[in-house]
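To fix ideas, we reproduce below a protein record of this kind.
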Amino acid sequence: MLYRAFANVVTGTPLIVILNDARKLILMVLDSLKLLSKDVLDKDIMYSLLLVLSGILTDKNGQEAVIENAHIIINCLIGFATYPHTMLVRETTIQCLVAMSQLPHARIYPMRIQVLQAVSKALDDPKRAVRQEAVRCRQAWSEI
């Protein structure tokens, strides 16, 4: 219940405000995602949180905030690459993994094999948009 409330507040907050406190919020966002993924009814909130995470990952200041927790974020995202309840969560998760490939090499290289294995499962997804993102992600992570 508390995580739903947190998720609703964060998703309603402008991204500029979130970016100012991204270092503090990133772990709470990940915890919320993990807990919300257990209930099918929370798929829309989960998608909204992933959009916030995607916004953080695509911003230069946000990338600086996630560098120290890159392995935690990647492990979390790997679990959502095959989320069964909605295509939007899988697609956004893979887009976040593509954004993570832009982080410094030393931080993300140890996770390369796990990401490529998770993305290879997404290549067989029934939805075309997910497969296209999986191809982009595989290419981005193969070049590392």
